[in-house]
Write a structure and sequence with these properties.
Largest sheet: none
Helix content: over 70%
Strand content: under 5%
Number of helices: 8
Radius of gyration: 19 Å
Order of helices and strands: HHHHHHHH
Distance between the termini: 36 Å
Number of strands: 0
Amino acid sequence: MDGIVFGLCALFGIAGTVLSAREAWRQRDRNEYRIARFARAVAFGVCTVGVILAVPPIADLTESVTGMHNAAKLGAHFCAVLWCGSLQLMLVDWSYNHEVLRASVFARIAFAVCVLAAMIPLFIATTDESVEFTTEYATAPGVTVYLMVYLAYVAITCGEIAFLCSGMALSARQTGHAWTAKGLGMSAVAAVLGVAYAASKGSYLVTHYLGHPWPLSTEEIVSPTLAGLAVVSLITGLTLAMVGRRRASRELPTSQTA
């Protein structure tokens, strides 16, 4: 299941990264939304790396090459944190005015750094050849705490992404920018799916801790599916929004582009 879902995500990620990087390079001399363009390209790139690491054969190869057990899991989780953080920076640049932009960017960078700083010692203290950082090993307290830190960050950031995208989608619809509105609307739905993924995995961990977990086999199908749908929908939605902004800039030369 993981191989199919994350393999498909990798294909979308590669395509989105190429398009986003090309657009960022094309618009490199423009000052407007420079942070957003760079953050979007980075987000797509790290997402692609993360989902590739989540493909089981690639994960096994990574651990074999590095000689480090759970190396692929740690890499995929780090990429997920960087992916969510980069998307936050992109949307903050789109949404906030110049007066509060710097503080907003630094606040989100600091939040991501704190989460990564918390994950590393938990990983070091827990990782072992007999342990995998998945819900299957929820009996290991270190695994549960590590995953809950990671999932809490995903839920919080995806919640903000959904809020910002939905607001901008409504604004774009009112101004007649249909492509941008559709792309941001799809992105908002994708972010909600990201929250659902974190809730699915997190609820299993919580109910397992309380002694009444729901079936692990169900969680291992539901969570990857939600994650895959979130990644594919978000990349597709933001790419549509990018195309919509480009079309709008051509129709109205005085408008701003991202």
